[in-house]
Hints:
76% of the residues lie in helices and 0% in strands. It contains 20 helices and no strands. The protein starts with a helix and ends with a helix.
Amino acid sequence: MATMVQAEFRDELMSNEKLDDLEELGVKQSSDSPTVCSESDPPDGGRVAWATALGSFLIQFCGFGYLNSFGVYQDFYTRIYLADQLPSTISWIGALSSFLAASSTLISGLMYDRGWFHHLMIVGSSLQSLSLFALSFARPGQFYMIFVLQGVVSGIGMGLMYGPSMAVISQHFSKRRTLVMSLVASGTPMGAIIHPIMLNHLLNGPVGFAGGVRVSAGFVSALFMIACLSMRTRAPSTPTASYSAVVRKCSREVTFILTTFGILLCQIGFYFPVFYLQLDSIKHGISVHVSFYSLAILNAACVIGPAYTGLLNLTIASTVACGVIIISMIGLSDISSMVVVAITYGFVSGIYVALVVPLMTKLTPDLSELGARMGLCFFFTSFGTLLSGPISGALLSSQYRWFLPSLFSGIACLVGGLVLVVVRLIIYRQRLRIG
């Protein structure tokens, strides 16, 4: 994985855009990084490459695309299926699933580098599908069964697939890598458009919870099967950097520590609209039928956001914008305000999500450590994801006081943005000393 990433990185350095990005961050590739001969360069296209891209897109569509639809379950559980539980308790289901999906990258990335790609795809998709089919047998009030299936099993399944399904693109594309990875990443918001509409009509319609979840599980399983049959690896496994060595190096890099901490703070506030926008709309008297489309609107705007790419400066701007919009949810009261919040937050959050991975890549001086650094970053920032829903739910309480969770989540994003501003200032000072 590392050598393939190095090959594509050198290809991208041939463009002025990438040179500008490196200059902005003050990062240079280590001269100790091994070279890769031209014969090993990705083909940058072809039937196998595009089939793999399609499979990766479907993994994102059914993985984080489904996870970002948890707001539908949060609303349904809170009002109907788990009405005896507090919103903060129910939100632990989605929070734990998000945490495991992100933190498992620490393990799945290492296994991918060892050549276990297809094993990860098969096991991960099987866990995701089986957890949904088993979830359909849960009865009203069976919180712990739902928690284990949807929070633990499903989260681990997604975690096994997410990182490797994105990394495999680097084996097939070089110059088109940025474009293809953007298309693959758009699977998440596309899935988060389709799944909420589908789930709302199934769960709240005549089909009911059991039948609705089974239909959803069948749909997801069919797409997973297509994905597993489509994807192919091209490069043999290569030696990877030691996690212990990377941890020691990262512990001495102030920019890596602060960037990880800033992203962690943003994650604490980031999921509040994703988990609670639909419930917020319904509790403010907006038509249930209209509220069902709130998450679909949010995620539709998410598809547009990643088209505007940049690095650290734009990451800062998107996190600050996320914080401001979350705080503005305090004023949500009618259909127009719900639509404005959904569109604007979806747009800026789409930019934020699209920039996290390339930002960490550009902050990696030795690309042989890229997989390990990404795993470390996602592991620590996943704790922000874990805390986001439960803290917001606890502040919301059974009285549905929307002021406190909106203010807390918005401030968390704003503080995270300020930490990234500090990173920008540190890099600027480093550039002055060098130049």
